[in-house]
């Protein structure tokens, strides 16, 4: 099976001019990390990828991107849960409409689940500890 079929199929092939170079970059980065395994890094690689003069603007841009991504995840979670409730895939939950504008919904149970996920991420800051719940998932199957 070709690699493009494994990592996204049609999406990977249709946006190839963007996704193939990004995929190659990830592969090359991983190869570099494997080659330099066990060697101490002089600087933090997160800050080392940008020029020194661009450090603070880069941090501001990264923070804005994180805020936008979290807002889209929250909105998407509420929309997905609302549709799943309507189709009968989720049990009935309280769905609130904070304004009269179409499309604005709030589901307290989903908000609580997202909050628990954030607290869980804060309690398990190391990547080895964060993989523990997914390891349990593989054993449960």
Number of helices in the DSSP assignment: 7
How much of the sequence lies in strands comes to: under 5%
Low-confidence stretches: 8-13, 134-141
The overall pLDDT average reads 74
Overall helicity = 55-70%
Note the main sheet. Answer: none
How far apart, in Å, are the first and last alpha carbons?
25 Å
Tell me how many strands there are.
Answer: 0
Q: Which shape, going by the Cα principal axes?
A: elongated
- Pattern of helices and strands: HHHHHHH
Number of structurally distinct domains: 2
Computed CA radius of gyration, to the nearest angstrom: 20 Å
| SS class | mainly alpha
How would you explain this protein's 3D organization?
The chain has helices at residues 3-6, 10-14, 16-35, 45-48, 55-87, 108-123, 127-140. The protein has 141 residues and is mainly α. It folds into two domains: 1-40; 51-140, no CATH class. The longest helix has 33 residues, at 55-87.
How is the secondary structure organized here?
Blueprint: H1 3-6, H2 10-14, H3 16-35, H4 45-48, H5 55-87, H6 108-123, H7 127-140
Main attributes?
141 residues; mainly alpha; 2 domains; 7 helices; 68% helix; disordered C terminus
Please sum up the structure shown:
Helix content is 68%, strand content 0%. It is mainly alpha-helical and 141 residues long.
């Amino acid at each position: 099976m070709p690699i493009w079929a494994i990592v996204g199929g049609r999406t990977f092939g249709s946006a190839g001019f963007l996704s193939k170079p990004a995929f190659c970059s990830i592969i090359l980065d991983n190869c570099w990390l494997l080659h330099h395994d066990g060697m101490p890094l002089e600087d933090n690689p997160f800050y080392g990828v940008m020029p020194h003069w661009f450090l603070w603007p880069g941090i501001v841009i990264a923070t804005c991107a994180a805020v936008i991504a979290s807002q889209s995840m929250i909105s998407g979670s509420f929309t997905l849960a609302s549709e799943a409730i309507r189709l009968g895939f989720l049990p009935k939950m309280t769905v609130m409409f904070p304004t009269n504008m179409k499309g604005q919904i709030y589901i307290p149970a989903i908000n609580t689940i997202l909050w628990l996920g954030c607290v869980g991420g804060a309690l398990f800051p190391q990547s080895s500890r964060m993989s523990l719940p997914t390891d349990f998932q593989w054993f449960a199957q």
